[in-house]
Amino acid sequence: MATNRTFTMIKPDAVADGNMGAILKMIEDAGFKIISMKYTRLTAELAGQFYAVHKERPFYGELVDYMSSGPIVAAILEKDNAVADFRTLIGATNPAEAAEGTIRKLFAKSIGENAVHGSDSDENAEIEGNFYFSQYERF
Ligand code: DAT
Ligand code: MG
Predict the structure, then answer these.
(1) pLDDT in tens, 40-70
(2) Which of 57, 76, 121, 135 could form a disulfide with 129 if both were Cys (CB 3.0 to 4.6 A apart)?
(3) Model pTM?
């Protein structure tokens, strides 16, 4: 069990705005080690699969369109207490409610275009990491 790992994406708005390097620096400065990393782009079909848990939510179509709108960075991160500590580092889903100094407070545009993803549990961190990375890409 990867209890000390989480999974992140730097989302299309943050990559398009040139914030990829600044966000990776915040992640490393906070003590997360990058285990696997990929610069890639989701098709609408893949974005729909990744966010299938939100299929019934009213924003699902918008979310799928947005997440397939441009390149992203996907990464597996390692640190003690990775899932909870990373959620603290990124801040609330809605940047208007995100704490000062968090990635979303600094870089998110809106509740939809919110700069980064962070897994919400150890179980989902493993599922999400496996979605992007083969066993040969997880170190
Ligand atoms: P989080 O990304 O903080 O885990 P979530 O899992 O509730 O948030 O939702 C997944 C993504 O869906 C979120 O990062 C952005 C989008 N989203 C959530 N709520 C939304 C809303 N009310 N309107 C538009 N997009 C929303
Ligand atoms: Mg979530």
Answers:
(1) 999 999 999 999 999 999 999 999 999 999 9
(2) 76
(3) 0.97
